[in-house]
């Protein structure tokens, strides 16, 4: 089992919750904001969340300790900054090519039913590949004694070039057949100088996907996942609650057209996070020093499974109390770029 170092050590406060970290644009440039409860303030002298995380790794401290040593500066109205469009991704790599967006599927206890509903054309008397994968997780996703368990479904979404800040549009490519939300929890990881993955914390994520393309043939799953994704606006530092209750909704012209609760955390999952982390970071290519990983852990709730077909201008909203501000992104579509052509040299 690959051990993950937790640099996002829990910052105790009167509410017993973890510290929340975000990044905002100010008149002076990028600022890191730390929040406990309703009190939010700028971290003094912090160039970025990435720089703070790297400092924590190099000094062997939790990020809360690093922030405490720097001290907090001016208080900020985070909700007001969000309304002004000043929210950034809560962490990003200085070189987007060294930031990886990845994920796992069929990890939640209701996810197989949703996937099978999407693949309704399959013979009902035959167990689908989705159900087989799901059963593997049920039977071996939480191995006793913390050993290596069953491999999950895995997918790649792209580099930091695919990461969309909270509030910004999720742009579906012109050739896409669909653009739909997937409310998920993402782990945020930075690879240390010795190749050791370190977990900064957790964030809400919208693992935006093309479900119509996936439903044509499951072997097109990779095509359906090569889409932008958003996460944040805040990173929850410390341990993730075992039981997370959230809500996912879609607004169209200001009216909610679909809303559904979602459950996450290990209490609602077939796999342990330790097992999912192992099966991602067991590959050396994902342990390159300095690289940043945003790894999404699956969902059991999506509007497509309820027959919703999204439209340009729809607004996705994902929220869960431990993560602070909701993750909000409108849907847009790229203009037709025509046939992709290669220039010979």
Q: Would you kindly provide a written description of the structure presented here, covering whatever features stand out?
A:
The structure is a single chain. The chain has 345 residues and is α+β, with helices and mostly antiparallel strands. The protein has 8 helices and 18 strands. The strands form 2 sheets. Strands 1, 2, 3, 4, 5, 6, 7, 8, 10, 11, 12, 13 and 16 form a 13-stranded mixed β-sheet that branches. A 5-stranded mixed β-sheet has the order 9-18-17-14-15, with no helix packed on it. A hairpin with a 2-residue loop joins β2 and β3 (29-36). The termini are far apart. The relative contact order is 0.20.
Summed up, the helix count is 8
Structural class, judged by helices and strands?
A: alpha+beta
Helix fraction bin: 10-25%
Shape: globular
Give the strand content: 25-35%
Overall residue-averaged pLDDT value: 91
Parts with pLDDT < 50 across at least 5 consecutive residues: 11-16, 118-122
The number of E-state strands comes to 18
Q: For the terminal residues, how far apart are their CA atoms?
A: 46 Å
Rg for CA atoms: 20 Å
Features:
alpha+beta, 18 strands, 345 residues, five-stranded mixed beta sheet, 13-stranded mixed beta sheet
In short:
The chain is of the alpha+beta class and 345 residues long.
């Amino acid at each position: 089992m690959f051990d993950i170092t937790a640099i996002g050590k829990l910052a105790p406060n009167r509410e017993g919750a973890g510290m929340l970290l975000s990044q905002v644009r100010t008149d002076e440039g990028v600022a890191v904001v730390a929040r406990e409860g309703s009190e939010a303030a700028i971290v003094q002298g912090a160039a970025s969340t990435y720089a703070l995380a790297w400092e924590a790794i190099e000094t062997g401290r939790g990020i809360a300790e690093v922030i405490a040593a720097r001290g907090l500066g001016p208080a900020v109205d985070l909700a007001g900054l969000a309304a002004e469009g000043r929210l950034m991704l809560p962490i990003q790599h200085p070189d987007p090519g060294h930031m990886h967006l990845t994920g796992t599927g069929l990890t939640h206890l209701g996810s197989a039913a949703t996937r099978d509903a999407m693949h309704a054309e399959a013979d009902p008397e035959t167990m689908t590949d989705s159900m087989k994968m799901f059963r593997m997780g049920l039977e071996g996703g939480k191995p006793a004694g913390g050993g290596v368990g069953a491999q999950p479904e895995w997918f790649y979404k792209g580099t930091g070039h695919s990461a969309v800040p909270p509030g910004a549009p999720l742009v579906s490519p012109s050739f896409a057949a669909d653009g739909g939300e997937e409310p998920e929890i993402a782990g945020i990881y930075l690879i240390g100088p010795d190749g050791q993955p370190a977990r900064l914390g957790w964030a809400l994520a919208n693992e935006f996907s093309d479900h119509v393309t996936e439903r044509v043939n499951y072997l097109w799953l990779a095509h359906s996942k090569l889409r932008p994704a958003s996460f944040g606006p805040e990173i929850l530092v410390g341990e993730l609650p075992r039981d997370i209750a959230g809500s996912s909704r879609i607004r169209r012209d200001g009216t909610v057209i679909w809303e559904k609760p979602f459950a996450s955390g290990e209490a609602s999952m077939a796999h342990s996070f330790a097992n999912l982390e192992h099966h991602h970071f067991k590959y050396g290519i994902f342990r390159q020093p300095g690289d940043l990983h945003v790894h999404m852990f699956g969902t059991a709730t999506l509007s497509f499974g309820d027959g919703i077909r999204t439209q340009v201008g729809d607004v996705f909203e994902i929220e869960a109390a431990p993560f602070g501000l909701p993750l909000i992104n409108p849907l847009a579509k790229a203009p037709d770029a025509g046939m992709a052509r290669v220039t010979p040299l």
